Amino acid sequence: MLTRRKHVLSLIEAQRDYIFVTSQLADEVRRRKVEAAGACLADALKRLPSWCGIPLHLLDLTEKSSTALKKTISDYSKAQDEANKAASNAVTETLERISMSKDELSSVLSKIFSSAHPHTNDELERARARKERGNPPGKGSKLGDELTWEQLLSHYKGESKLWIITKDSDYCTTSGSKAIPNAFLHNELLQRNSKIEVFCYNDLAEGIEHFTETTGYNREMQIPAEELKEIKKEQESLPPLGWMTRSFDLPPNFLETYHRRSKAYFPTITSAMAPVLVPGVMPDQKKS
Questions:
Q1: Domain boundaries, position 203
Q2: Is the pTM of this model over 0.85?
Q3: CB 287 within 8 A of CB 215
């Protein structure tokens, strides 16, 4: 699993020059990453094996067999408790590293976020108008996706291909294994280039892999098909971000250290990822 994760991170880092990132998106990740990771890891802790106990009073054993069974159960329970405690401590340590942006993923993202585009006043006003008209993308009362999309439109230079990688249904609708771009957003792009090809993916590894295969950039780093299948399977096993509630049993140190602060910044986690927008250019074109 670690090897597969490193492969995906290496591929993302290799294509960072072609990934469009806004300051809004980077801030969103920083605001939410600790609690989102904590909730996901808490779910993993809850799935650790636990001893249910055997109703010894229903068993017909000799005293010697009963004593031996009780000792085996006691030894197993102690070993299991120690393993669960070690796992809980590992989660807390991981979250502390994420909080300080010292984890492997934050390290890769920091290189991508270093070139994040700040918004202009004009883009902010257009985002507000978009929300007032009820046009996608965006949910709730805050300006987030609207601003990111307006910035993309500002920076779009007429490239022939665009990759949108997101789990947000405001951008794409999934039909079977295929993600189809929102008609309103697609039309806005077509107005800028009537021949543009828009590729939507709700799986990060698949989206980046398709970009690599289509453009030829860093093709030598492509992920083998079998490995890509395993990565997708792992990602599908993760719970959606919207599942998190206050009732989950996070590690005690995490609750004490992070939860009070996190409520001030993100009382809930939205059900969709912020989009990763990849404006692609073909190998025989210059990068914009």
A1: 2-50+64-116+159-280
A2: no
A3: no
